[in-house]
Structures are given as C-alpha cells and as structure tokens.
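Hi R.,

Here's the chain you asked about this morning:
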Amino acid sequence: MEITTNQDLSILTLIANASLLVQLVMGGLLLLSLMSWWHIFNKIFTLRNARARTESFEAAFWSGADLSRLFQQVSAQPGVGMERIFEAGFNEFVKLRRQNGIDLSALMEGTRRAMKAACQRELDRLDAHTSFLASVGSVSPYIGLFGTVWGIMNAFRSLANVGQASLAHVAPGIAEALVATAIGLFAAIPAVVAYNRFAHDIDRLANRFDSFIEEFSNILQRQAAK
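And here is the predicted structure, written out as tokens:
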C-alpha cells in the first residue's frame, strides 16, 4: 500500500494497519491489562475487608469479652484474617487442655503452631494473584518492545519497495510499532504500582497477625497456669 504524507496517524488507525504479529502482541497486552485491573479491584476490596474485620475483631477482643463467648461468635460465621487465627488457636488450646497429663509447654507449643498455620493460610489467601501483577509489571514492557522491534523491522523492510525513501514513508510504520510499547507500559505501570501497594498492606497485616499471636499466647498461658 502506498503511504502518503496525509495518512491518518490516529491510534485506532495505527493499530488497524499494524502487521498481524504486532496486532497479536497488542491484543495480548490489552488482555493482560484487563486481567490486571480485575485482580487489582478484587484485591482492593479483599484487603479493605480484611483490615475492617481485623480492626473490628481487635476492638472486641481487647474490650475484655469472655474468650469462650467470643469464640462462639467467631465460629458462627466465616472468619477472616485475625478471626481465623483466634479461632484456630483457641480451638486447639481447648482440645489440648482436655488431654490428661499434658504440660504447659506442650500445650502452648501446640496452640502456637495452630495459630501460625492459620496465619499462613490467611496470608496466602490475601497474597493470591499478587504474583500475577508482578509478572505483568515485569514482562509487559518487554512484550511491547518485541512488538515494536518487529514493527520497525517491517517498516524498514517496506522501504525496499519505495524508490525514494523519506520520513513520510517510514513514520507511519514506526508509529504503529511504538504503539505496542505504549500498550506494554499501559499494562505494566498500574500492575507494578498495585503490587507494591498490596505487598505493603499485606506486610502490615502480617505484622499485626504476628503480634496478636504472641499477645494471645501470653493470655492463654496465664489462663492455663491458673
């Protein structure tokens, strides 16, 4: 196709006129971007709910509520985060305490292991799909760069069929190729920002969970020593 100086260089036109491979690269990047945004919004609501439930549970726990009654309330509904850690720890504490001849160290060690296991399960649930965001953030620019390199190669190859080369002949082809890099950055930047934010929020929740495990263990130990 002959390229003229007044050729339309709008984004949609550039995408439509790109080679098939470059279009596939762009389509793949747009798909990755959509998947990233789905995970981003889903993770925002998940972490927001985990923080709200954690704060609500901490307020109830430190209000001096009876542990058995609090355990019944938590067990009556699906727990989240710290609620599940408390449920696992208190349930194991009660079970082990019913065993005859168990010493205090074994009782507390079993209780702490149950809470650590529950904590790890909760962190794994909160951390789900964040690795996908990290992958999109690190790989998308290179995928876009591959599309750009391929498009530029095609643009220069097309010059062999042109008697007199000029910027007007090569500019549309290069512009088409650069759109792939732009889409790659469009997919990568939100994924990287979201991943860093989510990693920070999950680390803060993990620190709160660890502190609660130690504090709750001390409370149970004092209760068992009576």
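One quick note: Residues 1-6 have pLDDT under 50 and may be disordered.

Cheers,
M.
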